[in-house]
């Protein structure tokens, strides 16, 4: 007998590379190229360090209230955590406690199967169709829960709210988690369905549309009953997930709606322009509603383009996985960054 036989073994999630070299054009982890709202810097610079002596507010009331107000919900319908990864992991632990398999697409956020394995939750992946769209029927059979990203990652494909409503309505026996990490860039949010369906949990994050990946803030919205169960698990795990600095910075971000809208609109404009240029260069891609484009070239293999970009300090993401090995996920940076990448691709594809 060896102690290692009793270790919980998991194959961890692999995050996109964070290069030490700052000269890289970094389009590999869907970070926002613009700074957080000016109020965030002010909140951090003006932060009274004496506050750190004390534990933070376990209910995170000021941030919960700011988010509840922004989304037109009650504070009891709001849950916050250390990035949406923390919120999603907590949701898996809380709501997916059945012997039946949970369902999610075959091509999606690659953390879902990692959490399922970690928590010993059985799961069954449902293949997207050839256009990378979900098929509603796949989610209308017996299951122990459902998790779907809308818009989906890494494909960028969004489905209509009405499609999710059918899935939610067909599953009164399980919780449906909609991961809206990218919804601000053009998806149709399921938040308006919360009042009607108490088995719906919608998860969002400050990491992409609010330029705060480094601060780690995510949140979930759902019925009061659902949020209570989520809080019961959280308070059985770690009462103080959110630190005092993150709480102050988060509130400052939510308070500046104008800046939020302005930066999101800039990214969407850059994305639409990038789509046209990529198409001109011979790439095809599903219509992205995200701050990234999932593109394949009609003749040149993705691995080759990935290597060429990387050798020239331009990082994108590539997965050697079935169905998607010929695609590159290219995050949307500033106009200047995209111009450099597009110019490089133009020259490379002509001269190879
Ligand atoms: C980025 C991302 C998340 C998690 O982001 P956090 O930084 O942990 O908030 C969750 N789901 C999807 C689909 C993502 O792309």
Brief digest:
The chain is α/β, with parallel strands linked by helices and 352 residues long. The protein contains ten helices and twelve strands.
Helix content: 25-40%
- Can you identify the CATH superfamily of the largest domain? Type I PLP-dependent aspartate aminotransferase-like (Major domain)
Determine the mean pLDDT. 97
- The CATH topology of the largest domain is what? Aspartate Aminotransferase, domain 2
| Number of β-strand runs | 12
Give your account of this protein's structure.
The chain is an alpha/beta fold and about 350 residues long. The chain has two domains: about 15-35 and about 260-350, Alpha-Beta Complex (Aspartate Aminotransferase, domain 1); about 40-255, Aspartate Aminotransferase, domain 2, CATH 3.40.640. Helix content is about 35%, strand content about 15%. It has ten helices and twelve strands. The chain has a five-stranded mixed beta sheet. A three-stranded antiparallel beta sheet has the order 9-10-12. Helix 3 (about 85-95) packs across helix 6. The radius of gyration is 21 Å and the shape is globular. The model has no long low-confidence stretch (mean pLDDT about 95). The chain binds pyridoxal-5'-phosphate (PLP).
